[in-house]
Amino acid sequence: MRSHSSRWASACLLPLLFATSAVRAQASHSQSQAQTQTAPVPVAAPSKDDLPANVLAGMDALRSDGPDDAVKFWVKGSVLESSKDALTQANNLRDIQGTFGRFQYFDLIRLQDLSSRVRVAYMVMNYERGPLFARFVLYHATPGWVPVSFQFDTDDTKILPLSQQ
Question: For this UniProt entry, which residues form the secretion signal (predicted)?
């Protein structure tokens, strides 16, 4: 037969053990929950396959033939086809080529759908001696996605959305 003090110790210690276990479990749960909330969520990189064929063809033309041919691909079928702004962009790309050397390749940074018919593509265009940042605003028209504007700048803050800087 157990003594009175042993029963008293069991009666007092048992709830204390349960309480300690519950506190530990709660702390462990809170810690894992905090780690889950602060851990970065991996985001799939955008695919170049999501870009219109004329944008990709323009990048290939820029690498092999130069700015004039690239711009011809980018404006084909869009409202920019007869625009003086397109010629200005070709001149800007020629100036960049003079400074940074030959265009090598581009990385697609982000594709952002603004609506069902408007998408913005953010890129970094890699030259021999430096990067050029690019933004293409694409519109889903009857023939498919076409650029309605594009801008280039060596200053990423003038091209990239704030969340990318």
Answer: 1-25
